[in-house]
Amino acid sequence: MKQTIATIHASSWINGMATTIGHVDKYMYNPSRLSELVGHLHYANTAQVEEAEAAAHTALKQWKAMTGEARGAVLYQMANKLEEHKDELAQLASREMGKPIKEMTGEVGRGIQLLRYYAGEGVRAHGDVIPSSQHQVLQYKKHVPLGVVGVITPWNFPVAIPIWKIAPALICGNTIVWKPAEQASLSAFRLCEIFKEAGLPDGVINMVLGKGQEVGRFLVEKANIQCLSFTGSTVTGTTIASTCAARNIKYQTEMGGKNAAVVMPSADLKSAAAAIASGAFRSAGQKCTATSRVYVHEDVQDAFLTALKAEMTAVKLRPADDPSCYLGPVASKVQFDHVTDYINMAQTEATVLYENDDTIQEDGYYIRPLIVTGVDNDHPLMTEEIFGPVVVVKTFSSYDEVISFVNASDYGLSGSIFTTTLDEAHRFLDDANIGMVRVNLETAGVEYQAPFGGMKQSSSHTREQGQAALQFFTNVKTCAVKF
Ligand code: NAD
């Protein structure tokens, strides 16, 4: 019997409650099964964005006056409540944007870890005592909240990315106006409900649903915010960065990637192939840190490609709720059309080395994983972010040549080298113009306690996660005291 799953009505969330629901702006269908309605969205208007910002300013007075320990206690409760709802939220997010259920459950787990990590920061030492040049003067630096923080997030990590911004912003004493991606609105709404159930005071997180060009733009251009943290595409991020710079609002923009993996002659080819397949094809390649360029030394090209093709037998294209799914559909029609353009380009302008032959009965946004070769470094397949299950392979003949290939990209988010030679590993860690550099590990998967961010067009050069986020979400005061 076909299971009937309840649909969700999602609206903005202001001052601890759902806003009045008027007409439906968008119906959300499961990208794994397009006949399955997952929920309805009701978008905010600009007056509601102003209301959200006002609620955040009102809540700020009390929230920043609480001790770090008390704020931390709220974050621990948020983590515990999220743990209670882990499976339910993972299922909703997976049905909303098509991430395989196993990965989505892991992502909610990451959200819980982030909340606990930052909860502990409420009682850790921050700041420095700076020796004064005068007698009997105590001089020190302390970190203070910025105020109301605007948060704009993409759809590809619907739970972890919002939490890796929200949790550090909150522990530092800020309040939030959050604009999630349209394709992740249902999970955003449910997260707000869960956090309220956990005891988060009203107005501390306010969430506005809507289109980026309307609601997001209004938040960036007009709202009374003191800081803006954005993750999304480079084209959107660079526009947002210039608006924030003109308004003199503290900002960070984490953006796209075109991440390279390098396979040296000494590499363990089987484990390199497994890591590269995982980096390229999990989440259907829709990770900013996904592997999308592979450079293989000419001496091991044939052996590596044999290992990679063998690995592809495990790469199953399935509906996202199938536990055997390695990759599911792409998230939306927009994504499907965007990636299909590159697939067509690959099939006409490159040589296809491997195409998965899985056939799916369901009607969804399925794209078969593709491995291609035969294009130069300046070809769009090598330079543009595809954000789908396509990886391009090219050979090289020396370390100097490959490092020039890796660094030729406009992006600099993540990258890996596969080698058993320590000297090559260290050279790559030094030479790659990349924010997250890895040895014998896939390009994706940076841990939550470590700084996350890129170089060049991938980032505005601040870092997220770990201790770095605490620097970003605070202002520094230099204090000097004489009695
Ligand atoms: P996107 O830029 O289209 O949208 C991101 C967010 O910005 C959404 O909430 C959207 O509604 C909003 N937005 C769009 N236009 C806006 C505007 N003019 N003003 C204000 N807000 C606006 O990106 P996407 O398609 O949601 O996400 C995919 C992109 O995100 C990829 O490029 C990927 O590499 C990148 N990404 C980067 C990281 C990272 O940490 N570097 C992580 C995940 C995703």
Automatic annotation (TrEMBL):
Keywords: Oxidoreductase. It comes from the Bacteria. InterPro entries: Ald_DH/histidinol_DH (IPR016161), Ald_DH_C (IPR016163), Ald_DH_CS_CYS (IPR016160), Ald_DH_N (IPR016162), Aldehyde_DH_dom (IPR015590). The keyword Oxidoreductase applies. Residues 29-478 form the Aldehyde dehydrogenase domain. One of its GO terms (molecular function) is oxidoreductase activity, acting on the aldehyde or oxo group of donors, NAD or NADP as acceptor. Belongs to the aldehyde dehydrogenase family. This is Aldehyde dehydrogenase (NAD+). It comes from Shouchella lonarensis.
